[in-house]
């Protein structure tokens, strides 16, 4: 079983070929592909974790769609002062499919 742990949008994700991952918005090239930096690579019995060897490994992914996450409501309230504030946020996300680990 071959898999890798990649840095994807500020977080780390364990991916195999064919895995679909949702991460923070990333820019793709003109073909709709991106490369993700590997943090760890497991190839059967061999585990690679040093930076020199990981620089040679490329994890490629195909962008499926750009989307927005669920709405998060931020509310602030202070008692007896009349202060209340309401704010919403929707995170920009990208859904990608892993196409290769080399």
Topology of helices and strands:
Layout: E1 2-8, E2 11-15, E3 20-24, E4 33-36, E5 38-43, E6 46-48, H1 51-55, E7 59-68, E8 72-78, E9 83-89, E10 92-101
Antiparallel strand pairs: 1-2, 1-5, 3-10, 4-7, 5-6, 7-10, 8-9
Approximate strand percentage: over 45%
CA-to-CA gap between the ends?
14 Å
Low-confidence stretches are none
Please compute the radius of gyration using only Cα atoms.
19 Å
What structural class do you assign from the helix and strand content? mainly beta
Fraction in helix = under 10%
Helix and strand element order: EEEEEEHEEEE
Strand arrangement across the biggest beta sheet: 2-1-5-6
Work out the helix count. Answer: 1
The rough form would be described as elongated
Task: Count structural domains.
Answer: 1
Number of DSSP strand runs: 10
Oligomer state of the chains in this structure: single chain
Q: What's the average pLDDT?
A: 96
Largest sheet: 4 strands, antiparallel
Description:
The mean pLDDT is 96. The protein has one domain. The relative contact order is 0.29. The protein has one helix spanning 51-55, and strands at residues 2-8, 11-15, 20-24, 33-36, 38-43, 46-48, 59-68, 72-78, 83-89, 92-101. By secondary structure, the protein is mostly beta strands. The strands form 3 sheets. The protein has a 4-stranded antiparallel sheet with strand order 2-1-5-6. InterPro entries: bL21-like (IPR028909), bL21-like_sf (IPR036164), Ribosomal_bL21 (IPR001787), Ribosomal_bL21_CS (IPR018258). This protein binds to 23S rRNA in the presence of protein L20. It comes from Plantibacter flavus. GO terms for molecular function: rRNA binding; structural constituent of ribosome. Part of the 50S ribosomal subunit. Contacts protein L20.
């Amino acid at each position: 079983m071959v898999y890798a742990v990649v840095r994807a949008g500020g977080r780390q994700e364990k991916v195999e070929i064919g895995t679909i991952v949702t991460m923070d918005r990333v820019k793709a090239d003109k073909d709709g592909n991106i490369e993700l930096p590997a943090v760890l690579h497991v190839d059967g019995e061999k585990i690679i974790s040093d930076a020199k060897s990981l620089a040679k490994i490329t994890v490629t992914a195909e962008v499926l769609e750009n989307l927005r996450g669920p709405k998060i409501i931020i509310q602030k309230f202070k008692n007896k002062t009349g202060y209340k504030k309401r704010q919403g946020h929707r995170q920009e996300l990208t859904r990608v499919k892993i196409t290769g680990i080399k």
